[in-house]
Amino acid sequence: MIEGVGRIRIEDETLTVPKHGGVLVGPQLLRQVFNDSESDVLWLIVGAPEKEFEVGETHDPNTYYPVDPMQLPKELEGAV
Predict the structure, then answer these.
(1) pLDDT tens-digit profile of 21-35?
(2) 79 lies in some domain
(3) How buried is 6 (Cβ within 10 angstroms: 0-12 exposed, 13-18 middle, 19+ buried)?
(4) pLDDT at 75
(5) How many domains, in total, are found in the chain?
(6) Inside any domain, residue 54
(7) Which H, E and C letters describe the chain, residue by residue?
(8) What pLDDT, on a 0 to 100 scale, did the predictor assign at position 64?
(9) What radius of gyration, in Å, describes the C-alpha atoms of the chain?
(10) Which domain holds residue 1?
(11) Phi, psi of 76 (to 5 degrees)
């Protein structure tokens, strides 16, 4: 977290990340950052695939999004 206090859902757990805090999330875990406060937050997110894809190789998006990526965390139920 660069600025503000952010929230991240990792699988079924929700964590609060303080300013200048960080979270290491394994590649197999579902994760989603969100802001359920009135304050702005600024995230720095770095990621990389587990392996390089060969030229022309296709990949399955379900590997990255095992559930709907637009699904809101329980803290934001009812939000649009």
Answers:
(1) 999 998 788 888 989
(2) no
(3) buried
(4) 80
(5) 1
(6) no
(7) CCECCEEEEECCEEEEECCCCCCCCCCCCCEEEECCCCCCCECCCCCCCCCCCCCCCCCCHHHCCCCCCCCCCHHHCCCC
(8) 67
(9) 15
(10) 1-47+60-71
(11) -110, 20
Structure tokens at 46: 């770095």
Here the tokens at position 58 are: 């296709």
Which residue is associated with the tokens 């300013």? 19
Residue 78 lies in a domain: no
In b/e form, how buried is each residue of 67-76, taking b as 16+ CB within 10 angstroms?
Answer: eeeeeebeee
Q: What are phi and psi of 74, to 5 degrees?
A: -55, -30
Tens-digit pLDDT profile for residues 38-73: 999 999 998 877 777 788 888 777 766 767 777 777
User: Is 76 within the bounds of a domain?
Assistant: no
Residue found by looking up tokens 């079924």 in the block: 12
Query: What is the distance, to the nearest Å, from the Cα of residue 49 to the centroid of all Cα atoms in its chain?
Result: 15
